[in-house]
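Convert to structure. Protein one:
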Amino acid sequence: MLRKINGEFEIIPTDFYLKFDAANIRFFGMAPYTALFSKEVFRIVASNGYNEKADDFSMEFNSVPISFIINVILKFLGPLAFAIGIY
């Protein structure tokens, strides 16, 4: 799988957030918060040894899961409550 960076497609590193599960033929992963309100373009290349086919798709990250929001709130409120003495 390739990722479009600065107009060119590059191979995705193994530690990238999006992974491919070949056994179930699906993609999975969780984008980092830095990807919020961005668009990623990917290219998938399939080959059977003789023929090769490529297709592009894009993903837009426009929403945040509620678990992420709660995690961020707790990350800041915990130390603040401890400093104030409420904890």
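Protein two, convert as well:
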Amino acid sequence: MWRPTTDTDRSPEGSSRDFHALASRSLSAYLVYQLLNADAQNKAAAYSNNPDIRFEYTVISNIYSAGLPPLEAGSVVAEKAWHVLAHQAAGNRLEATLKMSR
């Protein structure tokens, strides 16, 4: 199961330098939702207190063998993309929407 890493985590070899060298090769997935729908834009503006908001962003980071494994990341990105489209939201507003629907 994936878990966030910290500066005190060690690689299997025990060297934090090796761990950070591996982490420097990690990937991230950036999901951007353009608020074309007036209702979604109004909800985003109210949530963010930014009347000019046009985009919302979700980032899935730390994709590498010692973080979120690439194979698992594929399913996480696909599921998050589905949620973005289904709820017409991304970022913190999406997470708040998902939390309320549980």
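DSSP finds four helices and two strands in the chain. The beta strands are 27-34, 55-63.
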